[in-house]
# Entry
Amino acid sequence: MNHPELTLTDRRFGQTRRRDVWWVQPLAVFLGLSIFGLYATWAVFQGDHYHHESYLSPFYSPLLFDTHDHNSGHSWFAGKPDWLPLWFSPAILILWAPLGFRFTCYYYRGAYYKAFWADPPSCTVSEPRKGYRGEGSFPLIMQNVHRYFLYLALVFLVILAYDAWTALWFENGDGGKSFGIGIGTLILTGNVIFLGGYTLGCHSLRHLVGGIRDRLSGAPIRRTAYNCVSCLNRRHMLWAWMSLCWVGLSDVYVRLCSMGILSDWRIL
# Structure
């Protein structure tokens, strides 16, 4: 019986037999992450208009020190140290942790590998390289630190939840604070909800709460936690994008209110 000879042929970059518009998704990811990255970089180094009354931008939370002589009421310590350069922003000290969590995220890896590195640009589409090294060698082996960034992300989630609680209390004109709800309160609360859905649906967290056991039936608490994380993990991509867009919206809203362009509407 004769068998046909199978040969492998090199294909040029982008060559594929797919007839759908496969390039739409990587292009959308490229544009979305680029726009967010450019805005976030500007917002971080801009160093101003990061708070408004009881609202604090999540880009600057936790606020270790204020960038100006005035007291925002949100900073943990005294004013900006004199030895720091004028351009230095307090956001630089803290943003590396949430950005590191997203950069090493299992979903985001697959997304920006395709969109920025074309590795590959999409399934069954030729890429501009012949070799494959995977994540078992430097520098991509450092992606394994994702589990440690998870611990930091959980801490930040608690801090942002406290910021949402702070956003419920407003100056009442008598030197005290009164309970209230504004549009900014809802936005900062939504930020915690979307970030919680993204963070608590993390693959590493699922492994932490139940994946290290061979049999979950003998550990009902771990099984329940594993199922809860798995429920969120099924929509991990949706939570990732919703949280990314919402954290940007939160900064934009606080910034526009601080600049006087928007007036925060008090619902209650």
Remarks:
- The two ends are 82 Å apart (CA to CA).
- Residues 72 and 88 are 17 Å apart (CA to CA).
- Strands lie at 51-52, 55-56, 169-171, 177-179.
